[in-house]
């Protein structure tokens, strides 16, 4: 069970036995029972940056999902091993873009004479192969905390936001649209959705030619459940409530909110909030519950009526963490994330471009 004192004690003992040989990274959506053992917690950007800073540990145990552990493997030195306590901790959004589909989409854009004026930008929530695609084709990785600067950088490669160059944004249509419309001043009409199952993504040649943002048809199943109607109801019930959501939510939800940002941004916003203020938060439930517990002087609500965990983040539970740590103590290295050399080399180009963006 989550509070099993035997497991807590075993995790503590194994971590202590490993000492400096292990470094544990924890994403903000992780369970309380797991996050308590993290040496560093963060949003996707902070965790990538901290992995890149190469703590002098033999093993990095990544409490998060597969694409994050892959990115950590790409950014750490070759003699460091990245371990994901449960290999089934994937991400349904990352699974929505596979490299064959993306290669095929790019070939269609080349055929239409558009690829040379297009920069691919992938959200961190994508496979290493897609990050490698972006590295190879002059593109960049972004996270929810730097999507605006990353998109500016990308448009600057093809004549600026005011010009007629394009961005192919993978795989989260919502982060791409929200950033383009709310932060770059583009319009909803500048955005088209690319459905990989249809020729030209389901668009006419004219529509693709006119578009500025070509948005891959992907989304987050957790954030996709928040509705504008939920916001309307909270505003009616609690006048003056502050609405804070993650940019993976749909555009009408983000537009109706007061504040939008990454998990790290959400945490800082609550830290800075006035005692007695009311908040409703649209992001994963482990984080919202933790924030409610950490701020008893504030009125903190969850923007949904039903339970809304990220099921793959939740796969990393205390039994899996204990198993991973005790295996390391016993001399076995379980669940090592291995990205092949060529994919790593190209993906690192796109990740390094992100890490070099102005903060
Ligand atoms: P951030 O922590 O970067 O905001 O990302 C949220 C998310 O969905 C990670 O999977
Ligand atoms: Fe993927 Fe959404 Fe879960 Fe993040 S919250 S890991 S985007 S499914």
TrEMBL record:
Its cofactor is [4Fe-4S] cluster. Signal peptide: none annotated. Binds 1 [4Fe-4S] cluster per subunit. Its EC number is 2.5.1.72. Iminosuccinate binds at residues 27, 44, 123-125, 144, 246-248, 263. Keywords: 4Fe-4S, Cytoplasm, Iron, Iron-sulfur, Metal-binding, Pyridine nucleotide biosynthesis, Transferase. It is found in: Cytoplasm. GO terms for molecular function: 4 iron, 4 sulfur cluster binding; metal ion binding; quinolinate synthetase A activity. It catalyses: iminosuccinate + dihydroxyacetone phosphate = quinolinate + phosphate + 2 H2O + H(+). [4Fe-4S] cluster binds at residues 91, 220, 310. The keyword Translocase does not apply. Pathway: Cofactor biosynthesis; NAD(+) biosynthesis; quinolinate from iminoaspartate: step 1/1. It comes from the Bacteria. One of its GO terms (cellular component) is cytosol. GO terms for biological process: 'de novo' NAD+ biosynthetic process from L-aspartate. Catalyzes the condensation of iminoaspartate with dihydroxyacetone phosphate to form quinolinate. NCBIfam families: nadA, PRK09375.2-2, PRK09375.2-4. Belongs to the quinolinate synthase family. Type 3 subfamily. This is Quinolinate synthase.
């Amino acid at each position: 069970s989550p509070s099993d004192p035997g497991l807590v004690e075993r995790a503590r003992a194994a971590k202590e036995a490993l000492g400096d040989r292990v470094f544990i990274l924890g994403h903000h959506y992780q369970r309380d029972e797991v996050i308590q053992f993290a040496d560093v917690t963060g949003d996707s950007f902070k965790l990538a940056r901290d992995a890149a800073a190469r703590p002098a540990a033999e093993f990095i145990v990544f409490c998060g999902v597969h694409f994050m552990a892959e990115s950590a493997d790409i950014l750490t030195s070759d003699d460091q091993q990245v371990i994901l306590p449960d290999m089934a901790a994937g991400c349904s959004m990352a699974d929505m873009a596979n490299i064959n589909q993306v290669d095929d989409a790019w070939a269609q854009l080349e055929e239409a004479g558009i690829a040379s004026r297009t920069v691919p930008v992938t959200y961190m929530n994508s496979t290493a192969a897609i990050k490698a695609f972006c590295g190879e084709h002059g593109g960049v990785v972004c996270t929810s905390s730097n999507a605006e600067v990353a998109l500016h950088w990308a448009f600057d490669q093809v004549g600026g936001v005011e010009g007629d160059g394009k961005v192919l944004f993978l795989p989260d249509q919502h982060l791409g649209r929200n950033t383009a419309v709310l932060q770059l001043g583009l319009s909803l009409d500048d955005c088209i959705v690319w459905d990989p199952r249809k020729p030209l993504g389901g668009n006419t040649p004219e529509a693709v030619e006119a578009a500025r943002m070509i948005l891959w048809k992907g989304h987050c199943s957790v954030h996709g459940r928040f509705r504008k109607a939920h916001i309307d109801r909270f505003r009616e019930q609690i006048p003056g409530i502050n609405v804070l959501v993650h940019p993976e939510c749909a555009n009408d939800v983000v537009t109706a909110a007061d504040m939008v940002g990454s998990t790290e941004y959400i945490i800082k916003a609550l830290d800075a909030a006035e005692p007695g203020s009311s908040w409703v938060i649209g992001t994963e439930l482990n984080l919202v519950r933790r924030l409610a517990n950490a701020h008893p002087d504030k009125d903190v609500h969850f923007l949904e009526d039903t339970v809304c965990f990220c099921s793959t983040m939740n796969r990393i539970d205390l039994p899996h963490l204990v198993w991973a740590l005790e295996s390391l103590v016993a001399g076995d290295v379980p669940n090592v994330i291995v990205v092949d050399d060529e994919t790593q080399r190209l993906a690192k180009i796109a990740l390094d471009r992100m890490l070099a963006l102005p903060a």
